[in-house]
Design goal:
Four copies of one chain form a homotetramer.
Chain A (H helix, E strand, L loop, with lengths): L1 H29 L6 H8 L3 H8 L2 H25 L4 H18 L1 H9 L6 H27 L8 H13 L13 H16 L11 H18 L1
Helix pairs in contact in A: 1-2, 1-6, 4-5, 4-6, 4-7, 5-6, 5-7, 5-9, 7-8, 8-9
The structure holds a DNA duplex (21 and 21 nucleotides).
Chain lengths: 227, 227, 227, 227
DNA sequence: AATGAATGAGACTTCATTCAT
DNA sequence: CATGAATGAAGTCTCATTCAT
C-alpha cells in the first residue's frame, strides 16, 4: 500500500507545517523560553501528546524555523554569486534577498536572529555553519569589488559585518513600520552602503580632526563626572 | 551619626554593585530567562535570602543594567547635541559614544539590546522612553545635516534607523573580535555612513536597472522552485 | 465520541472533588496559610505537578470550598423565603438549613467562616455578595415578622446579626460536641431567639436599673486598678 | 544603681508596649501569618535586631495580645460573680464586660478570637485554660439562674455556648458598624437572651410542628436535586 | 541598645516530556 | 493517531530568626 502510506505522510507533513506556523508566531511574540509547549498545543488545537507526535521536541521546532529562513537564503545567495551580474548588482540582489526574508517573514526572522542561542550542541554548530555560508556570499561579493580596485575601504571582513549590521538589525523595528517595500528599503540601504564604500578614501571625514578631538575631550568630561 | 550611617550604606551599595556585575555576566552568557536567581547567588557568594536583600527582584536587576547603559548614553548624547560641533563631527561623536558602550561594556549592552523585552509593565514603558530619547539625538543631528542641504538621502527617520542598525548590531559579533578599537571601528562606520548619505543623489546605484531586473527574475525562479 | 469524552471528564471531576475533599480537611485543621500545596498533594497521593492539573491554584481551591457551602445555603434559603410558611417557621427552617451545613460539613464551614479573608480581589467581592444574599434571607424573614407587629425588638438589622451570631459561632466549638443533632440544636437556638424577640418590650430586663448601675461602678473600679 | 536599672526597665516596657500596639494593628488587619516580623519592625520604627530585643519571638507577641484581652476579662468576671447582684444583673454585667472588650478593643479581640489557633504547645494550653475560666463565669451564673427555677431551658452548657455565640461573633462585623454603644448592644443581646431563656418552656415555638415538617420536606427536595 | 546582614528552609507555581490507553 | 494524566525538577520569592559589630 504505497499510496496509503504516502497519503498519511502528506497529511502528517501538512499538520506539522501548521504546528510550526503556530510556533513561529508564538515564539516571535513571547520568546522561545516564554512560550510553553502547552501554549503551542492549545493554539494548534492539539493535545500535548499529539503535539509531540509531530514535533519531536521543542528544540526541533526551533531548528525547523531556522531552516525555513536559512534554506531560501542559501539557495538564493548561491544563485546570486553564481550569476554574471556586476559587483554592485550582486550586492543589491543579496540585499533584496535578505530583506525579503526579514520583511516578509518577520516572525520567522525574529526567531532566527533573536533565539539562535537557544540551540544547543549539534544543532548549534550546524546552524552556525549555515549562517556562515550565507555571510560568505556577502564577503565574497565585496571581496570581488575590492579586487576591482573600486573600494574606498580595504577591510573586507569589516565591510561584510557592516553590511550585515545594516540589514539584520532591521528585524528589531520593521514590525512597527508598515508600508515599507522590500525594494525601496534595499535601495535605501544600498545607496548608503555602496556610496559609502565606493570611491577615493577619506572624502567625508576630512578636516574634522581638531573638532573631533575637542568633542572627545567633552565626552571624557561627561564620562568622568558620572563615576 | 552621619559617618556611621554612610559607611554602612556605602558597603551595601558596593555589594549591590557587585551583585549586578555578576548578574550582567550571567545574563549576557545564558540569557535573562536562562539565568536562575540561584545561579546569581552562587556566583556572587550569597545565599538566596541575602541576594534578595540586595536586589529586590530579578527584574529590578535587569532594570539596573538598563540604566547602566542608558544613563551614560543619554548624558553624553545630550552634551554632544548641545555642543557647537559641525554636523559630521556631532554624528561621529554620537557614533563613538555608542560604540564605546557596545565595545567596552559588551555584557551590559548584550543584555540591554537583547533582553529589553523581558521588562514588563511600567519598567518597559520607562526604558522605551529613555531609549527613544537617545535615538532622538541621532535623528536631530541627521536632521540638522539635511537642513544644511548636504544630504543625498531625504528620509531622516530611515537614515536614523540605518545609523542605529549599523552600530547596534555590533553587539552580536564584537565579542569574537578582540583588538578592535572604538575609534577605528567608529571611523569605519562613519566613513561608510557619511559618504553614503552625503553628496548628490544616486551616484553609485546608477545604470544598474536592467541588470537588477534580470537578477530579480533569477531570484523569483529560485524562490518558486522551492515552494 | 461523546461517551468517551464524558467518561474522561467524569473521572477528572471525580478526582478533582477528591482533591478538594483533602484540601478542606487540611485547611480546617492547619489553616489555609498553614497548609502547603505540598501537603495537599501528599495527602491526595498526587505529585506537585499533577495537583496543579486539577486545582489551578491554591486560591481556586479556597473558592471551591466557599461555593460548596454557599451554593446549598442559597438554594435552600431561596426555597424557604419563597414558601408559604409563617414567619416563625421560615426562621426555624433557615436555622436548620444553616446549622445543617455547620454541623454536617464542619470542615467546610470552618474554612468558609474562618478563612474568607484570604480570598483576594475579584473572588473576595464575589463571595461577599453571595454571603450577603444569604443574610438577606434572614433579614427579610425577620422584617416580615416585625411587619406583623409581633416583635418586641424593632431593629431588624441588629436582630439579623444576633441570629447569625448565635448560629455561625457554633463552628468554633461544634467539633468538640459529638452527638448533637441539627434539629435539636436548632430548636434550642430558636426557642431562645424567638422567645427573645417576640412579645411585649422589656419583660425580662425590668427592675434591674439600680443594681446594674452598682455593678457598672464595680467594673469601673476593677478596670481602673489594672491600668 | 537601682534607679538606673529601674529607669531602663521602664523605658524598655514602654517601648515593648508600643511594639505590641503596632503588632495588634497589623495582625488584625493582615492576619497573624500574613504579617511579617519585618512589617512590625518597620511600623514600629525598629530594626529587626532591636525588635527581637523587645519581643523575644513572634509567638510571644501573640501571647501578649491574648493576655491583654483575657486578663481584664478574668478580673472583671471574677468581681461580677463574687458580687451580690441577682442572676439577670450578673449576666448583664458579664455581657457588658465582654462587649466592652469586643467593641473598644476591636483589634485585640480580632486577634484573640481569630488567631488563637496559631499558639502552639504550652501557650496553647495555657490560654485554653484561661479562656475556659471566663466561660465558667458565664456557666456558673446561668446555672444559678436555673437553680432558682426561673429558666425555660434546662441545658446550662448549651445556654452558655449560646450566650457566648451571641457575643463573641460580634467581632466579625462590629468594625463596620460605627456608632454602636456597648451598653445599648449589650441591652439588645440581653433582652433577647434573657427573655429567650426565662419563662415557661415552649411558648413561641408552639403549634408549628406540621408546618415545620412540610418545610423540612421542601429542604430535602432542594438538597436532593443538587447532588 | 541597636543594627544590618545573612541564613536556609519552604512558599506557590510552571514546564518539557512521557506513557498507558 | 490522539489523548489526558502524571512527573519532578526548577523557577522566583518570603520569612522568622540569629549574630557580629
Amino acid at each position: 500500500m504505497p499510496s496509503k502510506t504516502e497519503r498519511k505522510t502528506e497529511r502528517y507533513y501538512r499538520k506539522r507545517e501548521h504546528v510550526v506556523d503556530v510556533a513561529v508566531r508564538l515564539f516571535s511574540r513571547n520568546g522561545y523560553v516564554g512560550t510553553g509547549v502547552a501554549d503551542i498545543g492549545e493554539a494548534a488545537g492539539l493535545a500535548r501528546g499529539a503535539l509531540y507526535y509531530y514535533i519531536g521536541s521543542k528544540e526541533a521546532l526551533l531548528a525547523e524555523i531556522h531552516d525555513r529562513v536559512l534554506d531560501p537564503l542559501l539557495a538564493e545567495g548561491a544563485a546570486i554569486v553564481a550569476s554574471e551580474a556586476s559587483f554592485p548588482v550582486r550586492l543589491r540582489l543579496l540585499s533584496e534577498s535578505l530583506l525579503w526574508q526579514i520583511m516578509n517573514r518577520q516572525d520567522h526572522v525574529w526567531v532566527f536572529l533573536h533565539e539562535y542561542q537557544q540551540l544547543q550542541g549539534e544543532l548549534r554548530i550546524r546552524f552556525r555553519q549555515k549562517r556562515y555560508r550565507f555571510e560568505s556570499f556577502v564577503r565574497d561579493t565585496i571581496s570581488a569589488g575590492r579586487d576591482d580596485g573600486a573600494l574606498r575601504i580595504q577591510d573586507v571582513d569589516l565591510a561584510t559585518l557592516a553590511f550585515l549590521n545594516l540589514h539584520n538589525y532591521t528585524y528589531q523595528w520593521v514590525g512597527g513600520r508598515r508600508g515599507l517595500a522590500v525594494e525601496s528599503l534595499s535601495a535605501f540601504y544600498c545607496e548608503i552602503f555602496l556610496n559609502g564604500i565606493l570611491g577615493e578614501p577619506g572624502d567625508a571625514s576630512a578636516d574634522t580632526g581638531a573638532a573631533l578631538d575637542r568633542g572627545r575631550a567633552l565626552l571624557r568630561t561627561v564620562r568622568g563626572s558620572a563615576a
